[in-house]
Amino acid sequence: MSRSEATIPASAVTAFAVILAGGGGTRLWPSSRRARPKQLLTLGGSESLLAAAVRRARAVVGLERTLVVTAADQEKQIRAAVPALPAANVIAEPTPRNTAPAVGLGAVAAARRAGPDAVIAVLPADPFIGDDREYERLLRAAIAEARETIVTIGITPTRAETGFGYIHLGSPTGARPHGARVHDVGAFVEKPDRATAEAYVASKSYLWNSGMFFLTARRMFEEARRHLPALADVLDAAVAAPDEAAAAAVVRARYAEAPSISIDNGIMERAGGLRVLPGDFGWNDVGSWAAVAAIRPADDRGNVVLGGATLVDGEGSLVIADEGAPFVGVVGVKDLVVVATKDAVLVVPKSRAQDVKKIVEAAKKSGRHDLL
Amino acid sequence: MSRSEATIPASAVTAFAVILAGGGGTRLWPSSRRARPKQLLTLGGSESLLAAAVRRARAVVGLERTLVVTAADQEKQIRAAVPALPAANVIAEPTPRNTAPAVGLGAVAAARRAGPDAVIAVLPADPFIGDDREYERLLRAAIAEARETIVTIGITPTRAETGFGYIHLGSPTGARPHGARVHDVGAFVEKPDRATAEAYVASKSYLWNSGMFFLTARRMFEEARRHLPALADVLDAAVAAPDEAAAAAVVRARYAEAPSISIDNGIMERAGGLRVLPGDFGWNDVGSWAAVAAIRPADDRGNVVLGGATLVDGEGSLVIADEGAPFVGVVGVKDLVVVATKDAVLVVPKSRAQDVKKIVEAAKKSGRHDLL
Q1: What is the C-alpha to C-alpha distance for residues B235 and A257, in angstroms, rounded to an integer?
Q2: Of A160, A358, B129, B244, which one is least surrounded by beta carbons within 10 A?
Q3: Model ipTM?
Q4: pLDDT by residue (tens digit) across B234-273?
Q5: What sign has the CA pseudo-torsion B238, B241, B244, B245?
Q6: Does B362 sit within 8 Å of A348, measured CB to CB?
Q7: Which of A311, A317, A345 to mutate to test the interface with B (most CBs of B within 10 A)?
């Protein structure tokens, strides 16, 4: 047990991390694919986004209580990517059902091991975190608060982003767990247009919805019963199963009955009494290649060059040669993204990094399903 | 014998094409390499530049009198690229000695087969020719004139190019072989600076030096005797050899004695009485990727996409995926060159296409000799 694991006495609260690692997505194509999802990429760092998420969770809840929920077709790679994790801590959805049922599986595992008062910290696997210490402090604070109600961490916005949902801050509760501020949640609001996003940021009373949620397993089952009863039926049956094999059999047999809905839409936006902790720890959702450029050290002309690519006379550009990629030579470009893998090359201006999907669509249309 | 071969009666002049195909060069890297020189590239066309050069020469002098001089380490690929050519018509330099000695080898072959009054048409293998008919007309005109003196074809400039040598037009001779104009050569002038190039083009009395020369084998030997005696010794001995095997043995044994010098510097700029025919037949030296973009059909936004690459929302760009290259997806770029081969990717603004050499140097420095 590391020093940081010791900072939360087990007597106070038993917490599990439920790391959601089932995502696909093509925003980091060609590096990310269905067969190599974003959370498994290192993006020029020393560990994958998932390995980093597991490392941070371990520091707070311990490795034995770090769970990873993933999709069946990604299970093998996920296990290989975090070999130190106990085998039973990687939980594969029998069939894809979005994040509400996936969180349910984590809650079942936590409740079966430590009882329904165990707190689960629901953590997406794929954001980048710049300040691990601050992040871990907020995790401890949110876990402490989660004994009472559902807690989320909202990210203090650094720009008028239109690609995220926001959380409107309600009144402060006065609590200061681990020094963190705690507010009631005013409301979850959908992705805003540009002007609205700017108003949100200027008001200082909106945070980005990070998708991190903290609640007891019991609360998860109660909310599922209220809002997603078909899911609750499956979860309750799994919790009630006499042993792990029987619980797994219930999930295998009945998981498909659960509705396919996100934890945000299915539970969080419908539940009452939520609290939010503002967090500021270099969170980056790595939602595009432009974001990757922002999380890695740049040279004095703002270039980020990863994986042995060669850039001459560049400015503000991101050039990546993945393992097995051809030699990549780029000269004289400005604000450009060039990413090469062994079977595909992407070239796109940084300002149009979201348009990678147009290339993915083109590859799909031309029958190159091997590239998706 | 085709109709066009018949237009020059053998009784009038026996002419050989001496196609110089020994070049290396990295200006079209990564497609061109030492092991895959520019003249072997198709650049999105249906035939390699060399195959096109052979095809045009054949139309004028016949296949039997079309010779290709190449470097020993390129001989095998050159033969494979023009399989219809008689085996004896591919002549490999035993060791690299630049173009003056290479032309000498062509002159030896012509003289041994048809006597020293045979005309040799010295033709670089790697320019692109847009108008084959007009080019072939000029070839016939230059060959006809070459019975009397050394003739060159100068290209009517279409821009103030600083990368070429120029030929200053002297007085017209009044001759109109095949309808072509003939001038004395005023002077060969070196690559000019920008302002000088602009003045040249404005004056209409300068032509680009195309490196095409026409002269009898006898004249070649005489000029070599005068200006490059060590070369003349080798050529004379090869011409005097009793049979082809003996001639080949002379070349093998003594070619290294010849100085390494270009036909331009070694002979043409030193010889007297030269004539020049202005030519205008869509000549393009394909000296950079920007030039490649100019010789292939563009879409209505000025993009040239070759080899199955995918370009979305591009403008004025050249995107090439060579055989065996990864899938190439480019979106939203302007005036950019992207070239992928199976082992290398180049990205460079069209305006900086000459800077590909910086990448080649970088590859060299990092020990990637396989990419050169």
Answers
A1: 90
A2: B244
A3: 0.85
A4: 999 999 999 999 999 999 999 999 999 999 999 999 999 9
A5: negative
A6: no
A7: A345
